[in-house]
Amino acid sequence: MRTDAAVQREEIRNIGEGYAERFGFTMPEHSIFNTGVGLTEETVRAISAAKDEPEWMLKFRLRAFHIFQNMPMPTWGADLSKLDFDRMTYYSRPTETAQDSWDALPDDIKKTYERLGVPESERKFLAGVGAQYDSEMVYHNIREDLKKKGILFTDIETAVREHSDIVKRFFGTVVPPDDNKFAALNSAVWSGGSFVYVPPNVHVEIPLQAYFRINSQAFGQFERTLIIADEGSFVHYIEGCTAPVFSKDSLHTGVIEIIALPHSRIRYSTVQNWPNNMYNLVTQRAFAYDHAVMEWVDGNIGSKVTMKYPAIFLMGPGARGEVLSIAFAGKGQEQDAGAKIFHFAPNTSSVITSKSISKDGGIASYRGFVKVEAGLSDIKSKVECDALILDPHSRSNTYPVMDIRSEHVAMEHEAKVSKIGEEQLFYLMSRGLTEEEAAIMIVNGFIDPLVKELPMEYAVELNRLIELEMEGSVG
Predict the structure, then answer these.
(1) Which of 122, 185, 265, 443 is deepest in the core (most CB within 10 A)?
(2) Mean pLDDT, to the nearest integer, of 406-427?
(3) Are 344 and 330 in contact (CB under 8 A)?
(4) DSSP 319-332
(5) pLDDT (tens digit per residue) in 352-368
(6) In 3D, which of 133, 136, 135, 137 has the Cα closest to residue 28?
């Protein structure tokens, strides 16, 4: 008779064997047009022309490109010295137009998303899906009952053409091009991403999802997502990301801008699973107005380098912000992640919960910033950073900054670094688990606060990814 432990061992082996089949597979490069290697002003103009954009957007891009050229590389955080902008392709169009039917996509693109399970998830769990393949959204669809409520969910290019009054009002206001070098780069060459608008007092009870897939070598993906929740509304948006493993480095530099208007609530969940040749350099920021609630749930696995710090600007009285993140750094990986909260109004509160795991020489860093402006009252903020180091070769860093300029603040900060205890392993192994299975169970318990905030199917997926990363961690 097979024991539960034996069954679990077989499941873990099957997960490992199926990883390349599920995520790391490659398809032939599918491009009907690309701008070639390198970045010049002509590249920017070619992208804008390919999208048949209005003049105001071309001007926005060109201004951002000149900012990017003149802005120095960051000298803090992860090592970016080997990132070569001149060896990347910045735009590749896989299809003529986005489709609202999976069957209308070219066979290789359709097979890619079928193997990733995206169409099945849409049928079972989601209110709408956007799928990006290299530079463009190839699929976008939303349930008819949500369309009738006035909810807009489309690719950002369509929004620029068909909802220009809303887009022009908000685009580049939350993350302006001069915010940082990579925000400038995205602003110059952005392509793809979602546009979401939820009307007043409308609640989208089932999540919307976007799935970003890079299929080309030495490629840059630069999606731009804009989400606006009008007064009293609610939406949950989920983002997933994968790419094959190539010998050449690729770059993912997304920008996410979110506006939570009074009394609205937005949850943005991310499960990013990049290969070890990916630079993942993302700017995510939200403005939360009177009594609005903004929540980031952020899962970062894989990549060569990740630098990502979801930020919330609490702009009105009663606004609340929460960031819950997990970073897993394995061999050859540096995860530099964290959160930023800015209190600009009285009676606001924030919570940052950060968990990191490092193994096989990986580096996991928490980099956080909490600021309270002068003269504010009734401010509450709590920061909790937990790090789990699985071997003597790995590293965990914590860089918290708190800029408190008001006297009426309740501020808490807690940081803890630990390793898997021998007593914990012994206890679980005495119940029939191997050392590796026991370690996986302990790690799953460590990340449980984040996992339980995800819809069930995504929680299961995240646990599977963690198990894959944990293979061979002990013994």
Answers:
(1) 185
(2) 88
(3) no
(4) -EEEEEEEEEE-TT
(5) 999 999 999 999 999 99
(6) 133
